[in-house]
Amino acid sequence: MSQARFSLMIVDSLISLYRTEYSGRGELSARQMHLARFIRGLQRLADEVISQPKINK
Fold this sequence. Notes:
With 57 residues, the chain is mainly alpha-helical. It has a domain at 14-51. The chain contains two helices and no strands. The chain has helices at residues 14-21, 28-51. The longest helix has 24 residues, at 28-51.
């Protein structure tokens, strides 16, 4: 991560991906668990970037 050079990540239409992959109430639990893992990954990424902010001089 420290070698990546980006300052903005845009996540657009995250939920729509899960609507098409998982259909019906029978897959609701699997969808929610996978979505939670994905969001936790984004949170960890944000925490890492925030803990080492880039300061423009």
